Amino acid sequence: MAMKKIFLTEEEMPRKWYNIQADMPTPMQPPLHPQTQKPIGPEDLSAIFPMNLIEQEVSTERWIDIPEEVLEKYFIWRPSPLQRADALEKYLDTPAKIYFKNESVSPAGSHKPNTAIPQVYYNKVSGIKRLTTETGAGQWGCALSLACTLFGLECKIYMVRSSYDQKPYRQLMMKTWGGNCVPSPSPDTAFGRKMLEDDPGCTGSLGIAISEAVEDAISSPNTRYSLGSVLNHVMTHQSIIGLEAQKQMEKVNEYPDVVIGCVGGGSNFAGLSFPYVRDKIFGKEMRIVAVEPTACPTITRGPFAYDYGDTAAMTPLLPMFTLGHGFIPEPIHAGGLRYHGVSPLMSQLVLDGLIESESCNQLQAYEAGLIFARTEGLVCAPETNHAIAAVIEEAKKAREEGKAKTILFNLSGHGLMDLTGYDSFLEGKLTDYSLPESELEKSLEALKAFPKPDILPRK
Ligand SMILES: Cc1ncc(COP(=O)(O)O)c(C=O)c1O
After folding, report:
1. Burial class of 87 by CB neighbour count within 10 A (0 to 12, 13 to 18, 19+)
2. Which residue range forms the structural domain that includes residue 80?
3. DSSP conformational letter for 285
4. pTM
5. Which residues of 195-218 are buried (b: 16+ CB within 10 A; e: fewer)?
6. Which among 29, 106, 177, 410 could bridge 261 via Cys, Cβ 3.0 to 4.6 Å?
7. What ranges in 308-361 are assigned the alpha helix state H?
């Protein structure tokens, strides 16, 4: 019988994060100041982030020590298990072996606490007392509320209105951990009030919620902003997933042929895959596949361009794949994948041909989620279901080609707070949505005024 779960002991858990900036085949292009459009320096970010995190953001050190205080909190649920989806393999009648890293075992139910814990820690040692943030599906808001309560900081969360209405239990989780969660756009910020004036029924977007959280952080005492994805230091913290997975795969003498993850801002995907991208840079052959929704096809259809991370144009201009900072995606149930941009590090690795991307529609994702729930027993987050849909396609291809291969994917979160989405799917109320070309073109208009990033050759 195949081994179902592969564990690491606490002693075996990695003590350093991996920073892919040390191994990038093409140098990263700098973020630009939102007004001057010139490269920014660390000082420009200090109203938003503490200096120790800014240093990590620009660091090119390959390995970064995980502080003892962070390890102590990680041990609440880490190391997370690596699991074999042998019942799914059997159901699909495939020669492929399917493994997944189960990040749903964290108290908040996803990979997000992997960076929430260190971000709160670094803010705390800098003397910060309060953090603001945005949340889409509510997973990140829960993770930051959890981390803030563990370190004794206050937490204010701006939650995208459509998710706020869809997921009342996420709000209650945040409240239980002491977080203050409001729907965005909210009357609590000047930008939120303006959005509500223009459209009182606005369903919100991650870009709007980020603008509100940044405005609050800049205008409140002893407060900084915390971002759950996109930025370099977030990708570094999440590398714990892939570093553990490599040790666990080694224990069963396996190495993946294909690594798969879903993509919103890129953090769970980067977390699992960047340690493998490193192997690929140094000559290993494998495929590394990012899966996004057809409703928000950032990498598959957006250009690589300089763009703001938020709707109100307050963040630096980042070199990334983007659908335009004014883009408001359809309120699909995978709220965490509804972001107009994606991690600059990931974007550069896509340009370098190390990562490939594909998109998947909402119904296909839920169908995959249902198959997984009815074979492996686990009800996954709607975001994760996008990765599972791609895994199922790979496994079917292996069957058709009669080829054994090893697939590894990231089970980024459970879906126990997302059952209204499953209900809509089971009741036949969900529809597919692909972004019309005309809407995309309209949203990309704003980018014409910004500097263009260079497409640099690989070293
Ligand atoms: C369970 C889950 N998976 C994936 C994502 C997408 O975010 P990222 O691309 O940063 O991993 C989210 C975001 O909220 C999420 O909650």
Report:
1. middle
2. 71-109+233-448
3. -
4. 0.97
5. bbeeeeebbbbbbbbbbbbbbbbe
6. 410
7. 344-351
Residue with tokens 């003498």: 253
- If one residue of 105, 110, 320 were mutated to test the ligand 1 pocket, choosing by the most ligand atoms within 8 A of its CB, it would be 110
3-state secondary structure of 152: coil
Task: Looking at the structure, tell me whether residues 86 and 126 fall in a common domain.
Answer: no
DSSP secondary structure of 200-227: TT----HHHHHHHHHHHHHHSTTEEE--
Asked if residue 55 belongs to a domain, the reply is: no
Taking only the tens place, the pLDDT of each residue in 181-203 is 999 999 999 999 999 999 999 99
Q: Are residues 263 and 387 in the same domain?
A: yes
Residues with CB under 6 A from ligand 1: 110, 136-137, 139-140, 229, 262-269, 336-337, 381, 383-384, 412-413
Distance 1 CA to ligand 1 centre (A): 33
Burial of 30 (0-12, 13-18, 19+ CB in 10 A): middle
The tens digit of pLDDT for each residue in 22-42 reads 999 998 999 999 999 999 999
User: Are both 120 and 94 inside the same structural domain?
Assistant: no
Nearest C-alpha to atom 13 of ligand 1 is from which residue?
A: 336
How many whole angstroms from 401 Cα to the centroid of ligand 1?
32
Q: For 10, which DSSP code? A: T
Mean pLDDT per 10-residue segment, the chain (459 residues) = 93 98 95 95 93 97 98 98 98 98 98 98 98 94 98 97 89 97 97 97 92 96 96 98 98 98 98 98 98 96 96 93 92 86 98 97 97 98 98 98 98 95 96 93 94 78
Q: How far is the CA of 332 from the centre of ligand 1 (A)?
A: 14
Pocket test for ligand 1, best of 157, 163, 260, 337 (most atoms within 8 A of CB): 337
148: domain CATH number is 3.40.50.1100
Structure tokens that stand for 336 in this block: 């965490």
Closest-lying ligand 1 atom to the alpha carbon of residue 268: 11
Ligand 1 nearest-atom number relative to CA 229: 10
**Residue 216 Cα to ligand 1 middle (Å):** 24
Cα of 231 from ligand 1 centre, angstroms: 14
Mutate to test the pocket of ligand 1, among 101, 102, 112, 133 (most ligand atoms within 8 A of CB): 112
**Which residue lies with its CA nearest to atom 5 of ligand 1?**
336
